[in-house]
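User: I'm designing a mutation panel for Selenide, water dikinase and want to avoid disrupting the core. Could you give me a predicted structure to guide residue selection? Please restate the sequence first so the numbering is unambiguous.

Assistant: Good idea. Sequence first, for numbering, then the predicted structure tokens:
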Amino acid sequence: MSKDIKLTSLTKSSGCAAKIGPGVLHNVLSSLPKFKDENLLVGFDNNDDACVYKVSDDKVVIQTVDFFPPMVDDPYTFGQIAAANALSDIYAMGGNPAIAMNLMCFPSCIDISIMHDILAGGYDKVKEAGAIIAGGHTIADPIPKYGLCVSGFAHPNEILSNSNAKTGDVLLLTKPLGIGIMNTATKAGLLSESKIKEVTSIMSTLNKYAKECISGLDIHSCTDVTGFSLIGHSYEMASGSDKTIEIFSDSVPIIEGALEYAKMGIIPEGMYNNLDYLKDKFTLGSNISQELQDVLIDPQTSGGLLLSISEKDVKEFLSRTEVFTSHARIIGQVVDKVDKHIVIK
């Protein structure tokens, strides 16, 4: 088969929108036995971004794995985005990635040079992160998929969780929403080349730079916004912290055009899976349009960091982020628990 094949033509769902819905996943995982180990500081029962295992009094290892089918047609760019997405969980936990292993599913019927270009994109992002790739695993599969298993390290005191938000904290987001919707529009052939370039640039930007901006600041909780959507990941933070998060919908950064495509019904399947799980977990202001709700529940691929931060440090954090992005924004606040964990105003 030609090396000019469109990768997205081989998939039904793309990026993080291809993930199994949170409701199904929760039901399966909740029925499994929990492993007990005093050195396992964070496991899969915490709904956190990665596992954390203590290896000494001054060092923990953070481990995560993530892979998905392509959301862009260019193999190199797909490799970059998949790697950036996998690396993100390490940053969200407060660590630095050190070593990665490739995970690849690849159709035997397409040109092997496409595999090379996907891996090259991943290699370059891992190198940018200051980590190394030391191997991996590849299987034949009619639908291409790529990602990484990543290990990073941190001091135990540097670990950030998604369940320690404090009343009075300010909620910050470092990348705009609408990625899943825009990827769906791309697959439908509706986006210009310049718009595709803008969206892929957002997805391929490492959260390394946002994570570096938190040094010395009073960050109470952190997660990255991926397939579970802004509302979904905010819900995990709020429920884990036993707080309510108020989201200021008119302050949320959104990629230009995403609301218009949502209004047209250009919605990834993953949004409906998210909504099915989240529908009774948030309250919505009467002024919130259907398309804005859809964007807030849109599954993101390689989205930004969501941080719960002391109000006194907000200005300093935003000042630091100006060097690499114009998207970082205050989008809400943490308050004492009320009826619902998420209130959208």
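For picking mutation sites, this is relevant: The mean pLDDT is 92. The chain has eleven helices and 13 strands.
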